[in-house]
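User: Quick one: structure for sequence A, then sequence B.

Assistant: Sequence A:
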Amino acid sequence: MSEREYLDYVKEHPDEDKRHLRLQMILANGSVYPHEGQTTLVDRQVDVKTGTLRVQGVFPNPGNVLRPGEYARIRTIIATRKDALVVPQKAVSELQGNYQVAVVGSDNKVHIRPVKVGERIGTDWIIAEGLKPGERVVAEGIQKVRDGMAVNPKPLTATAAAQPAPAAPTR
């Protein structure tokens, strides 16, 4: 875990007894291991090359499903953002380190607006500043819209939101 993630976690959980991270394991086939793990040790030194701390955890293993040498990814919840404003990553465009979204006004006209982004959560961004709850943003066809352009907005369906963006053609 990165040093920053660890410090954020400690800030949100100042009580020493509550600093045990709950762990979730994603197996090599992409499935989630049904039993939750828990940290047993957080290394006392930050690796100067990577800026990370080594974390050790244990998982129950009924039926000996887990085998030595298997590949898995581990994830945990470090922080909870109450009332976070979240938009699909594909609705946010970056230009020279600045982020922006195309907001659809009540007149169905697009207004390009700068935003400050927070963390990425799966396929979504947390928007820290520049957008208000309830505002509509363009998530499909973001490359085609321009400031002041009239659009016919449609809600983003759950299946469209879950689909990854198409890959760029290769040569």
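Sequence B:
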Amino acid sequence: MPLAAITTQSVSLTVSLPLFDQNQGKIAIERATREQLRAEYQARLNDAYSGAARLLTEIRLLESQYEASRKNQRELSATAATVESAFQAKNIDERTYIDLQSSLLSQELATARLAQSILEQRVMLQTLIGSDLPNVNARGRRLR
């Protein structure tokens, strides 16, 4: 029998079982990814918390300035009412009367700017924490 006529046939089967490495490379990558995501989440949470604390402090400061400004405005308004009658009786000059009215208007504008700043800070805080805030100041009084 010639050698060329001999043929062999065989079946080969390869099975890869992760018995020894137990897919440790992929597991390590997944753990690292989870840790990175957790660290990023914690950093964002810390930033949001410190931002909210800063905004609350600024709001309290603005509210105290607003209350002082409203008090000054009420005092100027009472003085302006007294000076109005004195001006009508020609007991003070026009320049003094106009200066007082101008001061009252400036105080009203300053109070309005403070009120606007408070509302802007509250909107920023609402945006940061994603919720609704009641329309009251730190002392529980309703904002005007």
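Residues 4 and 90 are 137 Å apart (CA to CA). The mean pLDDT is 85.

User: Thanks, that's what I needed.
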